[in-house]
Structure formats: C-alpha cells, structure tokens
Amino acid sequence: MHHIANASLTDKVMSSGDSNPAATPTPCVDIQGDGRWMSLHNHFVSNSKDKEPDVLFVGDSLVQLLHQFEVWRELFSPLHALNFGVGGDETQHVLWRLSNGELAHISPKVVVLWVGTHNHGHTAEQICGGIMAIVQLIKDKLPKAYTLVLGVLPRGKMPNPLRERNAQVNKLVKDAVSSLPHASLLNVDPGFVHSDGSISHQDLYDFLHLTPQGYQAVCQPLHAHLKGLLEKQAEN
Amino acid sequence: MQNIGAVQHPCARKYSGYIDKNYPSSEAFRMSGDEMNPAAVAQAVEDIQGDDRWMSQHTRFVQECKDAEPEVLFIGDSMVQLMQQYEIWRELFSPLHALNFGIGGDTTCNVLWRLQNGELDNIGPKVTVVWVGTNNHEHSAEQVAGGILAIAQLLTSRLPKTKVVVLGLLARGEWPNPLREKNVAVNSFLRSWLPRLGHTQFLDVGAGFVHSDETISTRDMFDFLHLTAAGYRAISKPLIDLLLQILEGTPEEKRASLV
Q1: Is the pTM of this model over 0.90?
Q2: Which residue in chain A has the smallest CA separation from B137?
Q3: Which of A92, A196, B28, B219 has the lowest tally of Cβ within 10 angstroms?
Q4: Which of B81, B177, B218 comes nearest A35 by C-beta?
Q5: Hey, is the C-beta of B253 within 8 angstroms of any chain A C-beta?
Q6: Is A162 within 8 Å of B60 when comparing Cβ atoms?
Q7: Per-residue pLDDT tens digits for A6-33
Q8: Residues with Cβ < 8 Å from B162, sequence gap 6 or more?
Q9: For B241-255, how does the pLDDT look when each residue is reduced to its tens digit (9 = 90+)?
C-alpha cells in the first residue's frame, strides 16, 4: 500500500469510490487493424527474458523515439538500458503493460518513467493519479528499484491549456513523490519555452516530439542524474 | 472555405489539368458512379487536443515558402516528417535543397488542404515527392489512391515545371493484416493510374521489408509502421537515384524563374 504519511490528493484520487480512468490498467484497442500495440507489448515481454538491464525506460513516444537516435547509443546503452516506449501511450496503457509481463523477467535498478502528455480528456489530478499508480506498481513488482519520473514537457508553439495541464501534473507528482524514498520527479525541460512564450521547431519538431538536438539538451542532465542514482543503488 | 479556383461543371469529363474537388479530372480516373471521393476532399485538421500544433506546423511551412528556394519538395505524413530527424536527411537530401512539409497523422485530405492553402506559394521545385495515404483509415484503397492522384494532379497544375514522384505505401504491422493488403491495393491502383498523368511517376520503395516468414522487423520499423535509421537508409537508395536522375536531367534553360 501507500507509504505516503499524510493523506495526499493522489490518495484521494486513487482510493476514492470513483475510479480514475488514468489509473485503471487498460490495454490499447486495435482500431486501425494491424495489431501494432500488442505486437510491441509482446516484443517487450519476450525481449526482457534474456536481458539484464540496469535501467528501464518506459513511457510514450518521447521514450520510444529516444531509442531511434544516436543519443541512446551514446548515453544510455552504456548504462545497460532497455526501452519500452510506445507512441501514443497514456498512463493507463503503461500501467497495463507493466502489469502484464513487461516487468516479469527483469530487475532494473532504476526505472525511468515518462508518460502523461497524451492523456487527453483527463485532468491534471487524474494524470498524476495515473503516474502514481505506475510508481506504486513498480514498487510492488520491483521492491529494490528506484523510479525516476520525468516531468512532462511543455508543448504547442505558443502558450495553451495543455502546457498549463502538464505543468500542473508535474507539480502534483512532485508533491506526491516528495515523501517517497524510492521515487522522485526530475524536471528535464532545459528551457524550451522562450521569453516570447514560443517553442522552437528546432527543439520540438512538431511542437511535441523532440529533435535529436532537443534530446541532447534533455538527456545530458538526465544521464548525469541517472549515473548518480546507479552509483547510490550500488552502494546500498 | 478555401478558394480552389475555377470549378468545373460536374459533368465535364475532359482532362483540363485542374482539380474539381468532387471529381478526378480525367475520364479514366473517375470513381465508380459519380460520387465524390472523400479522400480527395481538402480538409484541415481540427485542433481537438488544444495546442493547435497542426496549424502551427502548416503556418511554419507557408513561411518557409517565402524564404526558401527548394529544388525538391517532400510532402506527406509522418513517414516524410520523421525522415528529417535522421542523419540521412542532412547527408542525402539537404544537399539537394530539399524542403520537408511532412506532418504526422496527415491523410490525403489534409495534404490537399495544405497544398491549396499556401504551401505551394512562391516556390518552384523541380521535383515534388509525395508520400501519404497510410493514415486514411476511413477510406477504401481505391479512394485513397484517388486522393493521392488528386494531390499529383494539383501539383502538376500548380507547378507546371515540377516532376512528381509518388512513393508507394509501405507494409505495416508485425504480421500479415488487412492494412497490408489495403496498402498493396493502393499501390496497385497508383501503378496503373499515375503513368497516364503527365510528369508523374510511381516509385515502390517497400522491397525487402516483409521477410520470408511474413514478419516485419523492428530493426526496419521500430513500431511496425515508422522507419528506423536503417529503414530510411534502405528506402533512400532508390529514391536518391531517381531524384538525381530527374534533377540532372533538367536542362538549365528550362529552370523556372522564381520571383
């Protein structure tokens, strides 16, 4: 159960009578007709059977695309990292995947969780509840692992409600993990929003997804932070 | 509502080089019956999510048309858009003075809208590469092919000096599935229709992606749809060969003057 000392907002969201759709494990329904989501999930489960990653990255397209660029080979392969990112995934999809085999065969020391931006139709509170449900699930399945939640990035060319929602998610999650010894939130936004409120396509090529340049700016500090965490895990 | 110029009488059959949004221009390309092909109707993407990204991307492309003088224009969906994020773009396509107007998720309808609303203004590329259709989930293979045809017709009428290269739709999904069959059918229609349109050709870049056990590998398509760096490298070979052939074949004196 929760290790949160005082009743937090997330407690209320997660344990209240009304269920939180963002925190209810839900597989993706194959609307398009080529079964790609389930194929990827099955791949992740079988891939993990003969791997011994120290780090597991899990989340949505921001995680998935990271695996395609040089920065992954430069910074994260050396840390023995696996990538279980699926484009379009919302918190409830990640929750389902991790509950259905993706953690069954591995014991990473650190899980890097990056999800939430695609939870359209959910409130910031619900998205936070979804993220915290994943944090709790990881704790249940991998008692020794540390979960590093990455802050959801700003999006859209100019200020818009989704930027506000994402900032609120980050604030709520940061509060929720503050009392947890096994998890923390890392803000990985290096300052993508300029003084005029705009985001550049050089950093987020479609004002949502990172360019290789954008990934470098996010991943250098992330890599440093991860190395520190791994060293601390090694000491324990 | 955007101005699409002179609209032909619905009964006109003669090919005039202009697109009536209800009918492909030529008799040979008419859909069965006289119904409108929904895949050939220009349509903007509605901002449902709330951050207006599609319009922001379109606006940026329109602005790029004011500043750039591309020799090659790529237009389409995420297959086009993602290409620019890999090294291969800088290696092979930037040197050709190529512009990339891909937007993830786009259907033929969305590309048509963008082309009719500024993304062809002030530019005179020698080659336009079109890659779209895999996201047209609401439409039949014949409709999708008709939508791609309408794009090719629009390009040849708006940019009389351009050569249009239409890329075939790739296979998708880890295992055989209805979308693979649909994309094969689209390509089949395009193979027979496009040669009848002047200045347009079809290029199939999908060879080798489906293995003998009928699977697609994540080494080529990381999510069984989008290409990896290796996947793009594979399709770039035939593509760059064709582009160079077309570009080197264009006599200097026929170069369009742009201003």
Answers
A1: no
A2: A32
A3: A196
A4: B177
A5: no
A6: no
A7: 445 545 445 443 599 999 999 999 999 9
A8: B73, B124, B125, B126, B127, B128, B155, B156, B199
A9: 999 999 998 554 444
